[in-house]
Amino acid sequence: MWKNRGAEPLPDSVESEGKKIAVRWEWNRAASHSDAQEISFVYDSASPKLRLTWEWQARTDHGPIEHQIRIENLDDHEVWLPFIDSIRLDWECDSRASLEHLYIDKGAGSPSAVGTHVVPLQSGYRWEGTSSTYAHPETGEAREIIPWFLVERKDGTQSGWYVGIEFSARTRLALERAGRSLRSAAGLNPNPGPFKTRLKSGDSFETPMVFLGGTEGGIDATGIALRRWVRDVLTNPADWKNPHYPTLVNNSWGSGEAINEDLAMHMLRDSAELGFEMFHIDAGWFRGVGDWYPDPKKFPHGLAPIADEAHRLGLKFGLWCAWTQAALDTEPGALNLRDPRVNDWVVADTAAGWEPEPHRDRPST
């Protein structure tokens, strides 16, 4: 059994007109409600006039439950809110229990060496994972993660819990074990600080929606249960009326920029044998950024034979491309930033020494 002994404190102060103001929250019983699917506690502050709604909801009879905090500014003046996590947990945990922590890297600019991390979660363990709209780790910087993780006991039941964030911007998950305490937090990424949120009169702030679930039976059982919940709750019901949705795709990015004709053909035939429905070639097939033609060294016969083979095997064929990105290649047909006809429509000027990345047009470092 997992028991959370941590409380979620309400913000005790805000800033208004340059001054820090203490906030005294009162529970609004009349505005609060609970039923089998939703719990909603409402708290009001008289001065400044604010309303905080603390919500849990279960949108299905299986899978995780969701949690969010909303603050409305009902005052005549704007206020600045302090940093608020979406959720904070403090599980009571036997210090002798053997635990593991599972989290997954984002693909980012190149495949990571590990991908799926399964790490012993011992006393003294401290971890933080971050996610943003585009993962671009600098040298020595930690790889961004899929904003989700799992903790489970390494015993016969393999019972565990997981938390994830339904938000694609700058988020953070944290995990720490000390003695009998296993603490976690999830929500917006407050770094670099200081962190404040401006809330104009009449506006509201919502923390990113998080989901929290319990599981047993190991990683595979967790994945099966979570996929069912994602299908029923987070995806568009209309998509499931299409008998061909979702398409099962094998993507070449597992080999990164090394993709070539021989490797593509090998992966394509494996895809057909394994029952995939599409083979998709990711970045690395082209001559250069903005030069969207097959690299003759990697694909001496072009891409048509690969697409034809995919169709012969009953698969769809996909191709990654960023048609609107330009760079410095001078081959015929390439989009060159130094060409006035191209430079006229780019969204930003580039320095004289600018160079593109292998498959993006952001400056090299």
Keywords:
five-stranded antiparallel sheet; 365 residues; single chain; eleven-stranded antiparallel sheet; 35% strand; 4 helices; mainly beta; globular
Explain the overall architecture.
The protein is built from 4 helices and 25 strands. With 365 residues, it is mainly beta. Among the domains are: 121 residues, no CATH class; 95 residues. The strands form 6 sheets. Strands 4, 5, 6, 7, 8, 11, 12, 14, 15, 19 and 20 form an 11-stranded antiparallel sheet that branches. The chain has a 5-stranded antiparallel sheet with strand order 1-10-17-16-13, with no helix packed on it. The radius of gyration is 25 Å and the shape is globular. The chain starts with a strand and ends in a 22-residue tail after the last helix. The mean pLDDT is 91.
Mean pLDDT: 91
* Helix content class: 10-25%
Structural class: mainly beta
Global Rg: 25 Å
Distance between the termini: 49 Å
Total strand segments: 25
Question: Residue ranges: pLDDT <50 for 5 or more in a row?
Answer: none
* Major β-sheet profile: 11 strands, antiparallel
Shape: globular
